[in-house]
Amino acid sequence: MTQETLDRIRKFTEDRDWDQFHTPANLAKSISIEANELLECFQWSDDEYDLEHVKEELADVLVYCRNMLDRLELDEDEIVNRKMDQNERKYPVEKAKGKNEKWDRLD
Amino acid sequence: MTQETLDRIRKFTEDRDWDQFHTPANLAKSISIEANELLECFQWSDDEYDLEHVKEELADVLVYCRNMLDRLELDEDEIVNRKMDQNERKYPVEKAKGKNEKWDRLD
Amino acid sequence: MTQETLDRIRKFTEDRDWDQFHTPANLAKSISIEANELLECFQWSDDEYDLEHVKEELADVLVYCRNMLDRLELDEDEIVNRKMDQNERKYPVEKAKGKNEKWDRLD
Amino acid sequence: MTQETLDRIRKFTEDRDWDQFHTPANLAKSISIEANELLECFQWSDDEYDLEHVKEELADVLVYCRNMLDRLELDEDEIVNRKMDQNERKYPVEKAKGKNEKWDRLD
Asked: In principle, which of A30, A71, B100, D82 could form an S-S bond with D44, CB 3.0–4.6 Å?
């Protein structure tokens, strides 16, 4: 995300005095709610979906994720890289290649 | 997200041959599932939460969002800015300031 | 659900003094969290799923729904029938038969 | 749920020829989607909520749960009681009383 987009999201919240509602718990609820509006695009079919609607709902998830990063003063790259460290350990290529099992079910 | 982090996420998927599982519908499910693992950090209390756990689950949401952007060949800034255009129209400052009502309930 | 099962669920909560945690908001989070553990059974495949796992997660959803009915002193049949009144109006057979569109997209 | 309510739910689906859409995976998505419409009632406040709206969304969750029980030919009391067996083992009264920790964190 560019700095300009980040600034726009932050200004949107500040201008409306919405920081008061953006507790971590409320943002976690919001991310789940928007994730399910995204899921609704695929409720009855995996293949036929309205791409414009998907874009809007995915954007909503991303905006609330950004709000949470901001609220908790987290660095996106830092938390993602730390999680990727874990993922790479949990899913070694030789075991996980081409398989969709959860790490604790990989032999 | 830096290019380096993006590349790491993509390489992780490619190395494991997991693109086959990353259909838009499966990624939508995955985003919701991870969003709810994040929500679980706040299941019984809004204020007491394990920040390290929050970071991990938020990172999972972000990684699956990135997978979906990649799969659908979407530009994060573009879809977010288009949604922010909508949000700014739906929630004019003078109506929405300090209120948490949904746009269709703002008088 | 039989009265015996209902009583067992209530006694479980009472014995542990968990009513204090069962606010409507916490139960709503809990229903969503368990619904997503159920969804996880279908994360990467619609057709291959572990039925025993599905049963457990569906049971968890049902138990939290029951907790919420109890907490809000709601009658399951009453709220379901009232919703079915709405559903029958929104989805008249002649319009909705064989279609998976949302009611506001049915011509 | 009374037999009459059950029959009404089943007839609703049959009349619309919707069994074809009610795969276990689609119903799992639907339960999560409705659970999040319920959660939305509590998005910004735990205490101020629209009870009529809560009833409608909880009813939607219950109807889709019933659809899934039907689709998989499951007995609600059986799966709930089997899960309660597990819950009672995982959360012994003497350890869990008054605590909201997950079973694997109870000392």
From this structure: B100
